[in-house]
Amino acid sequence: MDTKKKTLFGGNMRQNGMIIALLAVICFFGIATKGMIFRPLNISNIFMQNSYLIFLSLGMFFCVLTGNVDLSVGSVVGVSGALLGAMIVQNHVPTWIAVTVTLVVGLLIGAFQGAFIAFLSIPPFIVTLAGMLMFRGLTQYILQGQSLSPFTNSFQYFASGFLFPQLKVGGLNVICLIVLAVASIAVILREMSARKKRISYGFEVPSMGVTAAKLAGIIFVMGFVLIMLAKYRGMPFVLVVLIIVTLIYNFIAQKTSVGRHVYAVGGNRLAAQMSGVKTKWVMFIVYVNCALLATVAGIVVTGRLNVATAKAGNSYELDAIAACYIGGCAAAGGSGTIMGTIVGAAIMAILNNGMSIMGISTDIQQVIKGLILLLAVTFDLTSKSKSKS
Question: What's the predicted TM-score (pTM) here?
Fold first, then answer.
């Protein structure tokens, strides 16, 4: 195989392998569910029911990047919901005050765990395992065996509301059409800018035909999703928040010193420390951020279910970890992308939704997701060993 083919089918295929896997999963469940997965209502539900997973995965991404995980995020989701229930439902605290207090508590949880990990050098696995037990117990203590409901309409809007659903043209929501136009232009400009930069550096690039086909595929998928949303009730508010948060974290990971330092710590912590990176503060920030996003996920879950329950967040940490590894994060740390993690979370969301539609029991769903996670990590380690040989 010549260099050009290797570049095209080796490098690019590895970079876009998860996108191909996502499309394969979508096509499979599209056939298996006889098209039910493509219905406008179901597409809207996929985003709204699994939005918590994106928040958790974004936080977990930076932990995985350092070569570690956070086992406490599911319990943080639960305790966040319990706090919100105690304040809003039981004590009628104004929604904005209750949400603010809950976010501050999330930051304190992250600082508590991060201090043990960063400054006392306790292994993250042990600290977050202890956190998982403590915060799950605290959730049960706050709720006292009760499920607290209902929440205010303003609180539910964050997880269940739609952005200007009444604005329609020809039966299609205007906001979705605007987002589609802006996103399409942004994707084209970004791809062409990246192509131009690679050419200027003397790197080989795919042909314009391949690039055009890639862009057409991306825009087609975005268009299909957004048109389906436009046919239903329009753009879910939580999806808008997710897009903004994802873009911010993608910028942090790729363009800021904080992002570069996290990659450096994950790649070789000792070398990073010797080069001047404040590795302890990097670890501290990573775990504070993870707890904060887990708290946001708790707000989303509680608002979506409209109930605070002691079972909220059970096993969520496993789905978040799986999303990161399926999305291409290296098991040893130091490698991965935000967009890859989003694709991994999307695969998990489609799996959850598709298997539920097919009536597959939750125990078998766990088996299937476990196998997929095992295959993803095996592929990562195998491909790395081959590249070294």
Answer: 0.90
